[in-house]
Design a protein that fits this description.
Layout lengths: L1 H6 L10 E2 L7 E6 L4 E6 L6 E8 L5 H5 L7 E5 L3 E2 L4 E2 L23 E3 L2 E2 L2 E2 L4 E3 L1 H7 L4 E3 L3 H11 L2 E7 L21 H5 L5 E3 L5 E7 L4 H8 L3 E7 L13 E4 L10 H13 L4 E4 L1 H10 L3 E17 L11 E12 L9 E7 L5 E6 L7 E4 L14 H28 L19
Parallel strand pairs: 4-5, 5-8, 6-9, 8-12, 15-16, 15-17, 17-18, 18-23
Antiparallel strand pairs: 1-10, 2-3, 2-13, 3-12, 4-13, 7-11, 14-16, 19-20, 19-21, 21-22, 22-23
């Protein structure tokens, strides 16, 4: 009887959710270049845009996905039915040994538009300061709710990534765009749009100096480095690293949007670095593709790409925390990949392979090459997603520290060996002190 009385107590937690405000009745439509149209309601900025329509299977972390620079120029379709239920946090953090100035993956929303099945009209989270709708409106990003995202995903899964247009308001009643009207973001150098224009430093008091080539870096990549006591210098994607490389203990190449073919300037500069430099190099996503192209591999455009937080990869070799033969679940966001070639370029070997589509997920330098170079297509830093491979950052920083220590030891030995023999002085005899009983 007492138990039944407790069951009748009303649930008070529902009252803690914040109302985001009623959605507007403004119509919005997603037009695909292949001829299909999906009609819904607008909950974002009242403007129309073109872009590349892609889908993500991630269940959480919509704020991190939307601020990931790798989504530049893309209309992002979330397969998860309900989006926006935990709102959006304040996107400011300190610059110190633990953080890099932002909470999310960049300062702004990077995708061109958002498509969801059902946007939450209430949100609840202790860090939330605004709703997904107000966030999109504030950043000028159009968004559609009330469409069948399952149908869109099946189309994209069958026909591949497709160019699209989001029409909002009066543009909904306008003529459907012709094939010539659609804009293809992959034709542009998107990396140049999102990369830093000037170098800057993070955690300058760190114990090891790492240069980062920014192709569109996620903040959690930089955060993962500074939290491992690295002093990080972020450089533009096409910076001449070879002119300053002796100042650093390691080189990191970040993720980024679009076609790696637009970054041949960086490829050629990195090829010289790999030929002449012996310090550790690590690349993620776009950075992985740049390393592969510098090594002599070709990159190609995948039909679908991989976007989500549950991509399984098989390790083909062991290195640091990675053990050969083990499957790791990873977070991914890419449209391009490296071709699997046989034989592989001399001095290189496959590191990971995708368990679903057998695409190349990683490469590494061989032991015989004497180099310490790795590249992975996935995101070890996640944000969001699993942390199965997060220790690859630890492996990289430890290799940089070990190389720094080895270089310092060799320099010390070289200095000692360069001294003339007569410069050594016999130590003074230690006087004997009598101990009285």
């Amino acid at each position: 009887m007492l138990g039944r009385q407790f069951l009748r107590i009303p649930r008070l937690t529902r009252g803690l959710a914040t109302q985001s405000g009623p959605l507007t009745g403004v119509p919005a439509t997603l037009h695909l270049k292949t001829g299909q149209s999906f009609h819904g309601r607008s909950f974002g900025a009242p403007k129309s845009i073109y872009g590349e329509t892609v889908f993500s299977t991630s269940i959480t972390s919509y704020t991190e996905s939307m601020t990931d620079p790798s989504y530049r120029g893309q209309i992002l379709v979330f397969t998860t039915p309900l989006i926006g239920n935990y709102g959006v946090p304040a996107n400011k953090a300190p610059f110190d040994s633990q953080d890099v100035g932002v909470v999310l993956e960049s300062q702004n929303i990077q995708c061109s538009a958002v498509i969801v099945g059902d946007v939450a009209e209430k949100f609840s989270h202790h860090t939330a300061v605004e709703s997904l709708a107000s966030w999109c409106q504030r950043h000028g990003v159009p968004a559609i709710t009330g469409v069948d995202t399952r149908a869109i995903t099946r189309l994209l899964r069958d026909q591949g990534t497709t160019l699209g247009r989001v029409a909002v308001g009066e543009d909904v009643s306008a003529a459907v765009p012709t094939a010539e009207d659609f804009w293809d973001p992959s034709k542009e150098n998107l990396v140049d749009q999102v990369s830093t224009k000037t170098p800057y430093e993070l955690n300058p008091s760190g114990s090891v100096k790492i240069a980062v080539l920014d192709f569109g870096a996620k903040a959690n990549i930089l955060r993962s480095l500074v939290r491992r006591d690295a002093a990080v210098t972020v450089l533009p994607w096409n910076y001449d690293f070879n002119a300053v490389r002796d100042q650093y203990d390691g080189l990191f190449l970040t993720n980024g949007p679009g076609d790696p073919g637009h970054c041949m300037e960086a490829v050629l500069k990195l090829r010289r670095t790999l030929d002449e430099w012996s310090k550790p190099v690590f690349g993620i996503c776009m950075g992985h593709q740049i390393i592969g192209m510098a090594a002599g591999l070709d990159a190609y455009r995948m039909t679908f790409g991989n976007r989500g937080h549950n991509q399984p990869v098989l390790a083909l070799a062991s290195a640091g925390s990675i053990k050969a033969g083990r499957v790791y679940v990873t977070s991914q966001n890419h449209q391009y990949a490296l071709k699997l070639e046989d034989p592989f370029p001399q001095g290189w070997e496959p590191f990971f392979i995708n368990c679903n589509d057998s695409s190349v997920e990683g490469i590494k330098s061989t032991v015989e090459s004497g180099k310490k170079v790795w590249g992975v297509q996935f995101h070890p830093e996640s944000a969001g997603g699993p942390l199965d491979t997060i220790e690859m950052f630890t492996d990289f920083v430890l290799e940089c520290k070990a190389h720094k220590l080895q270089a310092a030891t060799l320099a010390s030995e070289k200095l000692v060996n360069a001294l003339p023999v007569d410069s050594f002085v016999e130590p003074l005899a230690i006087p004997q002190i009598a101990v009285q009983a």
